[in-house]
Amino acid sequence: MATEGDESVTGASPRKRADAVRNEKALLDAAAAVFVTSGVEAPVRDIAARAGVGTGTIYRHFPTRADLIIAVYRHQVDACAEAGPALLASSATPHAALGRWIDLFVDFLVTKRGLAGVLQPDNAGFDTLHAYFLDRLVPVCNQLLGAAADAGEIRPGMDAYELMRGVGNLCIGADSDPNYDARRLVELLIAGLLRRG
C-alpha cells in the first residue's frame, strides 16, 4: 500500500530534486559571475544577493569556500564542454564554432582566477580537478579542430591540448594589467589557424 511519502503517488520528490538542481545551478552561475568581477575571495553575501537567496542557503549547499569554488569550477567545465557540440551545430562554419568556443574557454579561464590560491597544486583535489578539466575539454577542442580541418578551413594535425595551453598562457596576467588585452591576442591566434588561399 502506498504511503503519503511514496514518490510514485505524490511525485513530490522528483520535483524537489529538479528544484534543488535548478537552485544549485543558479547559485553556481551567480558565484561564477561574482568570481569574474571580484575574484574567488568575494564575500558570500555578494553571491547570495546575486542569486537572490540568503547566505544560509549557500552554506547548506557548499559548507566551505573551497567546496563552492570546486563546484563552480566543475560547473564551468561542464558548461564549456557542452557548448562545443552546440556551437558546431549552430555556427556558420566549424572555424567560427571554434572561435566562439575558445571565447567561452577564455571566460572560463578568467572565472577560475584565484583557484590556485585556494587549492595548491600539491592538494589531491587540485589534481582531480585538473584531470576533470582535461578529460572534459580536450576532446571537445579536438572535435572542433577536426571539424575545421575536415572542412579545409585549417591545417590538419593541430593538437587540442597545445592550443588550449597556448590560450591559457596568453591569458596569464590579463587580470592584473589593464593595458594587456589577452582576448584580442587569442582572437589573432584563432584567426591565424585559417588556411590562406
TrEMBL record:
Q: Name one GO molecular function term.
A: DNA-binding transcription factor activity
Q: Name one Pfam family in it.
A: TetR_N
Per the UniProt record, which residue ranges are transmembrane? none
Query: From the UniProt annotation, which stretches of this protein bind DNA?
Result: 43-62
Q: Which domain of life is it from?
A: Bacteria
Q: Which InterPro entries match?
A: Homeodomain-like_sf, HTH-type_TetR-like_transc_reg, HTH_TetR, Tet_transcr_reg_TetR-rel_C_sf, TetR_SbtR-like_C
Q: Where in this chain does the record put each HTH tetR-type domain?
A: 21-80
Provide the alphabetized UniProt keywords. DNA-binding, Transcription, Transcription regulation
Q: PANTHER family from the entry?
A: HTH-TYPE TRANSCRIPTIONAL REGULATOR BETI, HTH-TYPE TRANSCRIPTIONAL REGULATOR RUTR
In Swiss-Prot or TrEMBL terms, this protein is called Transcriptional regulator, TetR family
